[in-house]
């Protein structure tokens, strides 16, 4: 009988616990964006999440663990959308364009995520730097695999796919960071056509856009 009593309770509490964890992560994103990693406190996160400080610590043992979880959740979203875009693009030469569009669309519509990735993470400790490097490598690996396939198909010349993918990520990183810190361009989408052309030239793909009007 005890098992029959406990089972419904577990089924009810588990979704509630997941919901609270997501609410804490959403609150943490807002706090880290507003206050910065160094100045943000767990008390502020708890207040923003409308939960107790103990409730925050139940899910995350400290600020670093909270930031790492937030970084991983954001990275999973970016990587999932990029992978889906690559799978939906039949033209091998258009896959780089598709990946670029995903990144710019995501960061343009979620400026707080962009700031978390590209600005606040820089002020965090070694563990977060290591996690950020791993995320960049995972993203670059997606692009590198497509570049390797394009090379094998004769669409591009001989190159190091991993190095080229890293260079592509670096170019996107600099453009988005400039947008975050200086507000230029005013609309991140404005950078898409020129950045697309630059990345294509970098890897030796034909200079053309996905869309006739050159928009995202």
Automatic annotation (TrEMBL):
UniProt key word Transcription regulation: yes
Q: Which GO terms describe its molecular function?
A: DNA-binding transcription factor activity; transcription cis-regulatory region binding
Q: Which SUPFAM superfamilies match?
A: Homeodomain-like, Tetracyclin repressor-like, C-terminal domain
Q: Which InterPro entries does the record match to this protein?
A: Homeodomain-like_sf (IPR009057), HTH-type_TetR-like_transc_reg (IPR050109), HTH_TetR (IPR001647), KstR2_TetR_C (IPR041490), Tet_transcr_reg_TetR-rel_C_sf (IPR036271)
Q: Where is the signal peptide?
A: none
Ranges of residues in domain HTH tetR-type: 18-78
Which Pfam families does this one have?
A: TetR_C_24 (PF17932), TetR_N (PF00440)
The answer on whether this UniProt entry bears the keyword DNA-binding reads yes
Top-level taxon of the source organism:
Bacteria
Question: Which key words are in the record?
Answer: DNA-binding, Plasmid, Transcription, Transcription regulation
Mind listing where the DNA-binding region sits, in residue ranges?
A: 41-60
What's the protein called, per UniProt?
A: Transcriptional regulator, TetR family
Per the UniProt record, the source organism is Thermomicrobium roseum (strain ATCC 27502 / DSM 5159 / P-2)
């Amino acid at each position: 009988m005890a098992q029959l009593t406990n089972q419904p309770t577990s089924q009810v509490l588990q979704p509630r616990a997941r919901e609270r964890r997501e609410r804490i992560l959403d609150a943490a994103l807002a706090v880290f964006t507003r206050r910065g990693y160094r100045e943000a406190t767990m008390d502020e996160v708890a207040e923003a999440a409308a939960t107790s400080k103990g409730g925050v610590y139940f899910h995350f043992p400290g600020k670093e663990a909270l930031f790492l979880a937030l970084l991983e959740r954001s990275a999973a979203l970016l990587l999932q959308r990029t992978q889906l875009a690559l799978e939906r693009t039949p033209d091998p030469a258009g896959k780089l364009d598709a990946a670029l569009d995903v990144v710019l669309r995501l960061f343009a519509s979620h400026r707080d995520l962009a700031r978390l990735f590209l600005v606040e993470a820089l002020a965090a400790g070694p563990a977060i730097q290591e996690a950020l490097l791993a995320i960049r490598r995972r993203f670059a690996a997606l692009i590198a695999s497509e570049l390797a396939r394009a090379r094998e198909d004769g669409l591009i010349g001989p190159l190091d796919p991993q190095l080229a993918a890293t260079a592509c990520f670096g170019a996107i990183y600099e453009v988005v960071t400039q947008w975050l810190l200086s507000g230029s361009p005013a609309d991140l989408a404005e950078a898409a056509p020129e950045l697309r052309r630059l990345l294509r030239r970098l890897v030796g793909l034909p200079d053309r856009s996905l869309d006739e009007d050159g928009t995202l």
